[in-house]
What we know:
4 strands, single chain, globular, two-stranded antiparallel ribbon, mainly alpha
Amino acid sequence: MTPWWMPQVGVGEWAGLLACTPALALAIDRLVGEPPVKWHPVAWTGRYLAWAGQRLAPRVDAPRTRSHFSVFWLAALSWCAAAAAIFTVAWWVQVWALTLPAWLATLALALLLKPLLAWAMLRDEVRAVEHALDQSLDAGRARLARLVSRDVSGLSAAQVRESAIESLAENLNDSVVAPLFWFVLLGLPGAALFRFANTADAMWGYRGTHPLNGVERDWTWAGKWAARADDVLAWWPARVTAALIALTGGARGWVRDAARTPSPNSGWPMAAMAHALGVQLRKPGVYALNEGARAPDPADTVRACALGSRTVLLATLLACAGLLWMLRA
């Protein structure tokens, strides 16, 4: 049962090598880190989304010139056009890579997959929030603002730490497990499509107003398609991520908290992380996960990063095993 996105080749040499692609991509992530911004495909996506968003989402201080219906469908068509282009480009790049010798094809695919994964940077950013809190609360808030889109100005030290751990858990899915999930199913085009959808949700998927390039814009209708598309593509991976966190962290009773967040997906890995660490994670007035548990302390940030590393390792091994099974079946 060779995956449809791979060539029909002998399983001997190709199976073992190509199955190692996820592991090699994560090894590159650990050893090399992120590529320069000017060569980063996610940064290219962000530039397109910023350009299009300025033309699609109405300014809050400007008179309305389009109906909600028009704004919604123009944004949906812009999303679909970009998604189709990204999927197609990734497809042809993958076709080229798979014409190479097996070992070189594996290296090429790993190098192409790496920018769609970002565990090392995520872990380092969460650690940096804790180091900044050691200096001052203001420094911790400023560092956290690089990770989250919420207003951090009124957060206490405990709330800054909770938000950092929540971001780690949520982005374990968005930055590692979901891209690997879609890579196994659809190859490089699947991973690229998910990263586009996730970036579009981060930039467009707001329920009301949010600034873009310093200008306050209304995303109520312009962001609906992007938000729902990300929800659909992340639905299964989020639950897989939660199960992996629970398995590696020995969490129990976390499923009952998974639906407490407004997002249909982010609550799953965050609830699993809260129960695995034995702490409460909350957004005041919105949700509380593992309610009644203690607030996280500095050691819990370290534990969360270690648990994240174990989760990434397990997800990578499962992705490699899944590819190997598909190739040899």
